[in-house]
Design brief:
By secondary structure, the chain is α+β, with helices and mostly antiparallel strands. The chain has 2 helices and 5 strands. A hairpin with a 2-residue loop joins β1 and β2. It starts with a helix and ends with a strand.
């Protein structure tokens, strides 16, 4: 699954366009490398998001196309 879509489906970022912009600005790192929005995400990947002063680091647990809001946090594990 594309990185920007994963960030939206897992609700780490609210909108896919915002996720794509964050990737374009270099604020998203996957497995230690700055990632583009088209980067492929697989289980066990490590994603780091930078929001201003705050950094969020998560590990991908599952990649699902459609998830209910209540189950979205089961797609990743906070590190």
């Amino acid at each position: 699954m594309r990185l920007d879509k994963y960030l939206k489906v897992s609700r780490l970022i609210k909108r896919r366009t915002v996720a794509a912009e964050a990737c374009g600005a270099g604020k998203v790192i996957v497995n230690g490398k700055v990632a583009k929005a088209s980067c492929d995400v697989k289980p066990s990947d490590i994603i780091e998001l930078t929001f201003g002063e705050k950094t969020v680091k998560v590990q991908v647990v599952s990649v699902l196309e459609h998830v209910r809001k209540e189950d979205a946090d089961a797609m990743y594990k906070a590190l």
